[in-house]
Amino acid sequence: MTASIIDGKGFAAKVRGEVGRHVKRLKDEHGITPGLAVVLVGEDPASQVYVRSKGKQTVEAGMNSYEHKRDASISQEELLALVEQLNGDPAVHGILVQLPLPDHIDEDLVINAIDPAKDVDGFHISNVGLLGTGQESMVPCTPLGCLMMLRDFHGSLSGMNAVVVGRSNIVGKPMAQLLLGDSCTVTIAHSRTKDIKEVTRRADIVVAAVGRPEMVTGDWIKPGATVIDVGINRIDAPEKGEGKTRLVGDCHFDSCAEVAGAITPVPGGVGPMTIACLLANTLTACCRANGIAAPEGLTA
Ligand SMILES: Nc1nc(=O)c2c([nH]1)NC[C@@H]1CN(c3ccc(C(=O)N[C@@H](CCC(=O)O)C(=O)O)cc3)C=[N+]21
Ligand SMILES: [Mg+2]
User: Fold this and answer.
1) Residue 119 is a catalytic residue
2) Is residue 76 part of a domain?
3) Could you tell me if residue 19 is inside a domain?
């Protein structure tokens, strides 16, 4: 078998186009422009790349983008004061504080200082609780993007056996909640899971979110299963020349693609969908803040 490739990059472009059409309508009919504030602390070059492409795509969708870059030495108090300022700014409908933060800053404290209604990452404890109880919330972008691709490919997910590999607050746990919400039978596997291959090999859907390059190989996959690869790992690529690198997922693409029915590539899979869902969440937050019905199909 050779798997179908799920085109996250193409799907993300469609989602961004749909967001852009709703943004235009908000402007034309209500005179409102959604605004996204991104806070970047420190100089990590990879983070800077993400922040730049987020800003560019935000503007392309017709929304306002506000970037707040701060030195890695910023104090926790100063960062909390910035979050408070953004909470109180009516032009800002979404706030994203890029993670990870430097070690001297308590990440949970900063995230929980964000107004939950503006928490477009869906990381605030209120949003986590709302998602877990099936109430309206802001849904984390990466799992939302994965869910959109799965729904698009399969239609209904009801009754499917889904295994999420990884138990992070950012991806694994919310992904499991969303799959449960779509009536999958959900297992969360992780580094301490015994006979993990036997667990994943029973899955109709495998979502790999462990942050270990190419850990999931074809022998972990049931023939015909759908594989969603969340990992974005930069590894050395001496075959491309001295000092060169390349991006790989948490799945070993070639061996998984021989067995799976469908698979997302890296790059061009989950990553672009994450950014598209960030824009969708910003639009949703803006609509809710203004008492306007948020467009369906862009939320969980
Ligand atoms: N509060 C917070 N929210 C985040 O959502 C968040 C964060 N912090 N910290 C960093 C990670 C990383 N992240 C990515 C999003 C898109 C791509 C993406 O689009 N990647 C392209 C490739 C990019 C390349 O070529 O380097 C792709 O997979 O095709 C990657 C990484 C969001 N993050
Ligand atoms: Mg930290």
Assistant:
1) no
2) yes
3) no
Q: Which of 54, 118, 173, 222 is catalytic?
A: 54
- Domain CATH for 166: 3.40.50.720
Shared domain for 157 and 268, answered yes or no, is yes
- HSE-CB of 250 using CA atoms within 13 angstroms: 19
What residues contact 152, with CB distance under 8 A and at least 6 apart?
11
| Per-residue buried b or exposed e for 141-174, using 16+ beta carbons within 10 Å of the residue's own CB | bbbbbbbbbbeebbeebeebbbbbbbbbebbbbb
Residue 87 sits in a domain of what CATH number? 3.40.50.10860
Q: How many domains does the chain have?
A: 2
Question: In angstroms, rounded to a whole number, what is the distance separating the alpha carbons of residues 63 and 41?
Answer: 23
Ligand 1 atom with minimal separation from the 9 CA: 29
- Joined tokens for residue 283: 């639009």
Q: Two tokens at 132? A: 């877990």
Q: Which of 232, 263, 277, 279 to mutate to test the pocket of ligand 1 (most atoms within 8 A of CB)?
A: 232
Q: What are phi and psi of 34, to 5 degrees?
A: -60, 145
Residue 222: active-site member: no
- Same domain, yes or no, for 111 and 180? no
The pTM assigned to this predicted structure is: 0.98
Question: Residue 55 CB: number of other CB atoms within 10 A?
Answer: 16
Domain that holds residue 187: 141-272
- 242-272 per-position pLDDT tens digit: 999 999 999 999 999 999 999 999 999 999 9
pLDDT tens digits, 166-217: 999 999 999 999 999 999 999 999 999 999 999 999 999 999 999 999 999 9
- Same domain (yes/no): 267, 167: yes
217 shares a domain with 111: no
Token pair recorded at residue 194: 């015994």
Complex prediction ipTM = 0.96
Strand 245-248 to strand 233-236: parallel, antiparallel, or no bridges (unpaired)? antiparallel
Q: Is the dihedral of CA 110, 116, 122, 124 positive or negative?
A: positive
